[in-house]
Write a structure and sequence with these properties.
This protein has 133 residues and is mainly alpha-helical. Helices cover 35% and strands 8% of the residues. β1 and β2 form a beta hairpin.
Amino acid sequence: MKDCNQCGKCCIKYGGGDLAATQEEIDLWELFNPEIFEYVKDGQIWFDPKTREPLTRCPFLELVPKTKADDKDKYTCSIYHDRPEDCRHYPSLIEEMVRDECEMIEVVDLTNTKKAQHQLDKLMSDSRPAKGA
């Protein structure tokens, strides 16, 4: 499995209404991060603060400026440390990564998905809740 190359596919795919935030996250944003909270409507995330219409993409996904014209697009999250739990836990399954065309997957991962899943779980252990928690 490769390191994340910041292709943004996961954020682009799930940025248009397919993400949720917990009530606790929303409450914390309201108190401490009003610049995030303004994109919340009725407990749902990523709505235009002016029109209140749902956005088709996460408003905090930013394209990294290229150093060379032929570089691949790279993305960053401007609320990385305050991002929703859904974002922190992604990716969770090898099947999910394959479905979403995640660029971390390598051919060798597909030959032994159980081993790849173990590697992914280890890689994501700091981002996910402890088992049984």
